[in-house]
Protein 1
Amino acid sequence: MKVDLEKCIGCKKCIPFCPQGAIHVEDKKAFIDQEECVECGICVRQIECPRKAFYEPEEVRQWPRSVRKVFGDPTEKHESTGVRGRGTEEVKTNDVTGRVKRGEVGFALEFGRPSIGCRVKDVEVVTIPLAKMGIEFEPCNPLTSLLDTETGIVHDDVRNEKILSAIVEFKIPEERFAEVAATVYDAAQHCKGTVFSWGLVVRYAEDGTIPVTKTLDKMGIKYPKNAKVNVGLGRPLTNA
Ligand code: SF4
Ligand code: SF4
């Protein structure tokens, strides 16, 4: 994103809105740190700039900078998947296609957060060890198209792009949960320069218990049992 300096009057109204803290005002003009800007578009959509000084230059839509836009602006569709947002449609609900069946565990490892963001290459802290274990990354997740899925290494051209966040998504059979959980836990100790959160998707067992909790307890990992429900969908119950 850029600011038209002819228009800007340096009022500073925009500064608190930028999730990356990328805007600063100097000599009554606003400037954007192009390295930190994740092209989320909030400055255009949400800020009451009295001069409408923000504009999107052409390079925002050009590779590789366009990666920032699709991972940071929820109004933008990913070319590789046709989906808006950082993960698949069902990453938080398992409600769209019921991808995670009984006996399986879905993982959603979300890198970056507003204010900190991440570089695309930061995901390698988990994708490399997971690829070594033969994990298959979710093909409908837009991050997967930026990786060599055999090695988990991020493609050279996008490695250093700064993005708001990205989600590493995959699923495994329940029997592999302990070893994969240990790998993710170990990776978390080596994550530098950003943060990642760890979401698990499982179905209740027939007896009403939640699979994987015993393993998490053994590992000493505390977890909230969040449930996210989309009322009105629910097709997956037919193929549980
Ligand atoms: S809100 Fe607009 S006019 Fe005010 S400092 Fe920001 S860019 Fe400049
Ligand atoms: S596009 Fe987003 S990150 Fe970039 S300056 Fe605007 S609000 Fe900040």
Protein 2
Amino acid sequence: MTATATLARLKRMMPEHIKPKFSTAEELMAWQREQGEIDSKRIADENRVTRLNKIMGRSGISPLHQECTFDNYQATNAEQQKALHKAKKYAEEFGQSFGGFIFSGNPGTGKNHLASAIGNYIIQNGKSILIATLPDLMMKVRDTYQKDAKTTESKLIDDLCEVDLLVLDDVGVQRENKNEELIIFQVVDRRLANKKPVGILTNLKFDELGRVLGERVIDRLRMGNPTTINFTWQSHRRLVK
Ligand SMILES: Nc1ncnc2c1ncn2[C@@H]1O[C@H](COP(=O)(O)OP(=O)(O)OP(=O)(O)O)[C@@H](O)[C@H]1O
Ligand SMILES: [Mg+2]
């Protein structure tokens, strides 16, 4: 049925006192198009959440950090203000370059807070993010070696490469293990080759990262001019009563 015919039928069915929502066929068609776009966005959002759930059994940002935004990050000194500004800029410019970020520094200083704020920002723009600790990720990899595993190692690596932004958290606490090193290399190498950024959260200093991740990984992370922030101030956890 044409939009004009649909409109005529709707007008006939409608009681006199109700003003129709659309008075022209163009308006009706525009409305239908809009609804179609809303529906396809909803389906895309659902698919994204399902995919992320499949990888870690949860959404991309852990429950503790889901409320973290740039607005509720307290920047009381110049260094924190600079960190906040850099993180915000990264989120605003996400997608323009494939550079990732390295947030390095003391515990409780807000590395996850700002990474999650970036995530919460880019999600609004239809992008996907997964923040996963390396130990958790490696556990998921080991799970795939079980007899009754639901997925394979290579499928898991594919999934990790598909997310728009992958953030590797707690880098430096993992055991030295050749297989784990190789998996991290594969993920980082494939993502950067496909111009997809990787973020790193770590308590290690920049120069110590190479020892843990290997120089070949560091070399790739340096691609695309990554944002680096040194979190040098004291823990915010101590301030929370
Ligand atoms: N400047 C800040 N303003 C508001 N909340 C903050 C700030 N810094 C940290 N927090 C809060 O403190 C808690 C700890 O911060 P976060 O998890 O980001 O630390 P982290 O740097 O990742 O530490 P770790 O190295 O131990 O993982 C979080 O709940 C976070 O929201
Ligand atoms: Mg952290």
